[in-house]
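Hi everyone, sorry if this is the wrong subforum. Our group has a chain we'd like a structural model of before ordering constructs, and none of us has done structure prediction before. Sequence below.
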Amino acid sequence: FPNPAKNIISINEMEFVSGGMLTVYNILGAPVLIQEMEKGKKISIEHLQTGIYFLELICEEKIFHGKMVKE
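Answer:
Right subforum, don't worry. Here is the predicted structure as tokens:
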């Protein structure tokens, strides 16, 4: 995903195949977006306010964490 991002993100993690669940959390730890994922799928983040968000991607038995800045 581009970081910082404006309106769209996509996950292209090398180990991520498909069929995962993406959760985006705000700085307070509250979930603001929950979406089923496929590798390379584009996700709209237009509705999110500018700020820092934390990403959690659960795929099979693996969990990936990341941080994103929304412009």
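For your construct planning: The mean pLDDT is 87. The CA atoms of residues 24 and 55 lie 5 Å apart.
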